[in-house]
Amino acid sequence: MRRARPPRRRVHRAWFYVGIPLALCLYFFYLLETNLAPMVIKIAEVRAENWAVRIINEAINDQVISDLSYESLIKVERDSTGRVSFMQPNTAEINRVMAKAVSTVQDALREKEEFKILVPVNQVLGSEMYLSIGPRIPAYVTAVGSVSGSISEEFAEAGINQVRHVIYLEIRSQMHIVVPFIHSGKEVITRLPLTQAIIVGAVPGTYVRISP
Prior knowledge:
Blueprint: H1 8-63, H2 70-73, E1 74-78, E2 84-89, H3 91-111, E3 114-120, H4 121-124, E4 136-144, E5 147-159, E6 162-179, E7 182-200, E8 206-207
Parallel strand pairs: 2-8
Antiparallel strand pairs: 1-2, 3-4, 4-6, 5-6, 6-7
């Protein structure tokens, strides 16, 4: 006995009910990739940079700068008149401070390495008029990267016969931003003043500068 074949109309109707939703899903994912991905990365990079700068500042101010003094980093000698005649950086202490700063920042970033951003779904559909309203898509961003540090200094005029000597700590953090199906790399540079002093009179003729 031969089995009865289903009518062609039913087959076409089944393909219609399956094909249209499938095509719409593929088109929606295409919109997600072309419209949402660049915006998510752009927003994530800005948020990651602001987040990293805040974390770095808090960590350095609380655990490094709080117990630091200018005299511990720079050895100063004065002549019989009280004017500065010799200045030399304490290399060992500077290296210790820099190593502590890098370790502190690494620990702080590891503790709070994930955060969430919300992207307006209207951007996915190409609408620029109502970005502030409507549903938002959550994107979880993980920022993980290496941290390095360096010490620099600056002499600047601070008044009549006075010079301000500022020692800076520069932290460079390589952030790897990851969201579903998207990833990006960004370097965050934070420059913080560690300590400073006012030198009365001209900068001494003998001074061993801090190595970069």
